């Protein structure tokens, strides 16, 4: 008998990446299964990354100094409150590894980001999923009730991936006030730039006044750097320091650091592109609603189509048309499809295909 894998690892659920799209009639193919940005990198990013590639024989700056300075200036937060990783999911892994161990509990809404149970179980801690409330959003009262003396962290995903709604600022403030200070409240805001609800949570304000609140963000979505993998957290200095200590050395690559700095300088183009994606999102919501579907509030770059037992057949119908969407099939009431907002032609095909789906 060979070495035994840790029980916590052997029992991990599998993270399933979005699948590429098959060719539909006429050879069309759209991948709307990974919440990717349909636009190429922002102006100046490819050039900056190419220049940085000339230094690929050197290790990256392990301290992410220039990137930290640029982000600190952009967000107006102290540099010692920032920590980076290869995507916000990596930062979450580092954070939980730094604070959680066997015997601890981590509370999160479900259905939500499918990396949560994996990240929690890797530490040896116990995942505590709490069903979503009406409107496919977090039931903050139920999440608060799930907090016990063993709870080490609560994960709030806003907008919630994959269902779409964003949490309200006043509700999150009240939640943070009701949770013991010893509990980490992690606000995962990977889709922050797409939020248009004026009442939506403003986590930067909350982190400034509560040392147990951590904000996660990424450059993969709105900034279009999914292929380079850079995310970060904003937290109290001791927490950010712990994340940096747990992080993989030299994790953020040389071209990725250069791309982030260039992306932060291209804010005007960023907002223009985000505006186009939001407009397409609203068009998809309106079209799917007109087709008879009850679509939850969509605040990310995706829409949620609750499909229940028809989830897989719906996904197969979209695939046959040349559109790969993301089915979530568990055999429970939370089954449905997440459809990324893509280029207008892809969104047109989504609406055309959805109109013929069996209700």
TrEMBL record:
Lineage, top ranks: Bacteria, Bacillati, Actinomycetota, Actinomycetes, Propionibacteriales
Function field: Aminotransferase that catalyzes the conversion of aromatic amino acids and 2-oxoglutarate into corresponding aromatic oxo acids and L-glutamate.
Taxonomic superkingdom: Bacteria
Name recorded for this polypeptide: Aromatic amino acid aminotransferase
Organism expressing this protein natively: Microlunatus panaciterrae
EC number(s) recorded for this UniProt protein: 2.6.1.57
Cofactor(s), by name: pyridoxal 5'-phosphate
Molecular-function annotations in GO: histidinol-phosphate transaminase activity
Subunit structure: Homodimer.
Catalyzed reactions per annotation: an aromatic L-alpha-amino acid + 2-oxoglutarate = an aromatic oxo-acid + L-glutamate
Residue(s) carrying N6-(pyridoxal phosphate)lysine: 221
Domain Aminotransferase class I/classII large residue range list: 31-347
Entry-linked SUPFAM superfamilies: PLP-dependent transferases (SSF53383)
Keywords assigned: Aminotransferase, Pyridoxal phosphate, Transferase
Chain segments annotated as transmembrane: none
Enzyme class: transferase
HAMAP family reported for this sequence: HisC_aminotrans_2 (MF_01023), Phe_aminotrans_2 (MF_01513)
Family: Belongs to the class-II pyridoxal-phosphate-dependent aminotransferase family.
Pfam families: Aminotran_1_2
